[in-house]
Every structure is written in C-alpha cells, then in structure tokens.
Predict the 3D structure of the following.
Amino acid sequence: MSDTTSTRAWTRWQDWAEVVLGVVAVLSPLWLTTTNTITWTMVVLGALIVLDGLFSLAMPGVVFGEYVQIVLGVLLFISPWVMGFTDMTGAMWSAFIIGALTAIAGAVALPAATTAHQGMAGQH
C-alpha cells in the first residue's frame, strides 16, 4: 500500500473493517440469545467501535484513534468475563472474535496512521 493511500481520508481498509465489526457487534443481539447486560455491552462497545472507525477514516493522521480501537477491542474481548456472560456461548464467542479482530485491525493500522501523521506534520 502506498503512503498516499494511508494519508487520504476514507481509504484505509483497517478502519473500514473496524466500522463493519462495530456494526456486527451492535446488531448481534438480534440473532444471539442475550440478556439485558449482554445486549447493552455489545451495543455500547459496538457503537463506540463504529464511531472510532468513522473518526479514523475521516482523520487518518490521528494516531490515538488506532490506540482507542485496540483498547475497545480488548474491552470487548474481555467483556464475557467482566460482565459475567461466559455461560452464553454465542454471545461469548461473538465478543471474543469481534474484539480480537478489532484489536488486530487497530494494531495493523498503527503504521499507516503514524505515516499519515508524519506526513501531516510537514503541512502545518
């Protein structure tokens, strides 16, 4: 991927993946057996993931957005233990998979965000 692609808004695949993963998390209570706690956990963390993904897409040179993405992914990954829904297999695995993929996409996007940030530093 070229440096110009990573510096243009709305072009990084990692941020689009984050948006899609967040939407899947938000909508997952529609097809999963959930409780009120699980529903709110998935909806709130999923919505935050979507918002961070949109922010990162619009402002590709803001590196902290990728760190936020990693943190949100980790929070979703550990949510079955923290919120006590390890006995709900579908919701637990959804949180594990979506959380892990979100954190991985954030880690993969860090170099591109750093490159975009360094490119913007010369423009100020």
Notes: Residues 89-121 form the longest helix (33 residues). The radius of gyration is 15 Å.
